[in-house]
Amino acid sequence: MLKLLALLIAVACVSALDNGLARTPPMGWLSWQRFRCNIDCKNDPKNCISERLYMDMADRMAADGYKEAGYEYVNIDDCWALKERDPKTLQLVPDPVRFPSGMKKLADYVHSKGLKLGTYGDMGIYTCGGYPGSKFTMETDARTFSEWGIDSFKMDGCYSTTADFPTAYPIMEFYLNKTGRPILFSCSWPAYMQTKDINYPLIAEKCNIWRNYDDIADSWDSVKTIIKFYGDNKGNFSAVAGPGNFNDPDMIIVGNRGLSYSEEQAQMALWAMMAAPLFISSDLRSISNESRDLLLHKGVIAINQDKLGIMGQRVFAVSNIQVWTRPVLPAGSYALAILNENDGGSGTTVKFYLSNLAISSKSSFKLTEIFQGKDMGVFNSTTEFAIDVDVSSVFFGKLTPVS
Ligand SMILES: *[C@@H]1O[C@H](CO)[C@@H](O)[C@H](O)[C@H]1NC(C)=O
Ligand SMILES: *[C@@H]1O[C@H](CO)[C@@H](O)[C@H](O)[C@H]1NC(C)=O
Ligand SMILES: *[C@@H]1O[C@H](CO)[C@@H](O)[C@H](O)[C@H]1NC(C)=O
Ligand SMILES: *[C@@H]1O[C@H](CO)[C@@H](O)[C@H](O)[C@H]1NC(C)=O
């Protein structure tokens, strides 16, 4: 098993995008899910897409523990630009009413907090919200972002054809690289294709992270649908994940209105299993202490940020119970998530053996529950696990070999 893992990591190193970024899944904040394309700063100055919003979030990230926990990128999404490029330079222009200081100043501000600034665009003619896309201006846009001090670029795929993706995304990667500034590249490439002949090794060679599937919405149904897609793993995209390159199941909605606390725990646990980017999209100015503490949970983040960077996989699913495992450090350890998606009754006792987890190791494992740090005992190949998992809840633990 270890040999195989070493081999997978070696393979990933040969072919993966090498800009030194995203060695573990990137963490930060992203405006889209909570703030969408709200450009009405006149009536809703606090929540509209504006420099104030991103400065507020940078302030909260720096002051409320997020930065210390590893959250780093403050990411702008759609609707920040004017609808027309500068007629002379063809550069994108931030809306001067909503971003009166300009992007360079905003980047300086975010950097002064010890954080990084990400922005958004599109490989087609327009962004999904109808703002100018980069189709004919990739070199200019890459240079502009670099001059502004941008640290991450999410390139969406609206108003284009998927047939163009395998050439267009690599061209943008080429120009980003040419700027000499390390800019994390987030691609929406497979999201628009979903299961059709996707060249995942090529995507991993050109992108740091990539959205495979639909946008998340503020609901448990949405979270479950996403977890199913990543558990199905059609196209074997889990195999190309590793340091520098991660599948992106979309934003963390903890702190919004759609999830109960146990469902928020489930999202955090499953995103950790998937080695997923952690981009929070909720209002950090008004988030509950309970949700904030969950976002900052050291044990959850440690699994998410495990240095091996291996994406966990669903090992079995039966009667709305699914079990995921993910190899993590120290060598021979696993993270374990048991998700109960039933929506009636008072929970299920899930029973299984190590062999059901596709763990063939002869060692004994100590199991520690992660949220409470509870010691669950020692298990080996002949002992049966019996773990209670309530409805709409997750059991999240770590199996560490004991000698
Ligand atoms: C550009 O690509 C080369 C080769 O992969 C890499 O060594 C370098 O770090 C990249 N530079 C940037 C700024 O991404
Ligand atoms: C997925 O890819 C890995 C690594 O290339 C390979 O070992 C494995 O057999 C593949 N699995 C499937 C189901 O194709
Ligand atoms: C929430 O946390 C803050 C700071 O950590 C603390 O001052 C405040 O009292 C807490 N609020 C509640 C309702 O516990
Ligand atoms: C597994 O653990 C049980 C209970 O602790 C113990 O009796 C048994 O000898 C162990 N089996 C192996 C193969 O270590």
Verbal overview:
By secondary structure, the chain is an alpha/beta fold. 29% of the residues lie in helices and 21% in strands. The chain contains 12 helices and 16 strands. The chain has helices at residues 2-15, 32-35, 51-63, 66-69, 102-112, 138-148, 165-178, 200-206, 220-232, 261-273, 289-295, 298-304, and strands spanning 27-30, 73-75, 116-122, 152-156, 184-187, 209-211, 246-248, 278-280, 313-318, 321-328, 333-340, 348-352, 364-369, 375-379, 385-389, 393-402. It has an 8-stranded parallel beta sheet. It has a 6-stranded antiparallel beta sheet with strand order 9-10-11-16-13-14. It has a two-stranded antiparallel ribbon with strand order 12-15. It is globular and about 75 Å long. One 2-acetamido-2-deoxy-beta-D-glucopyranose is lined by residues 236, 239.
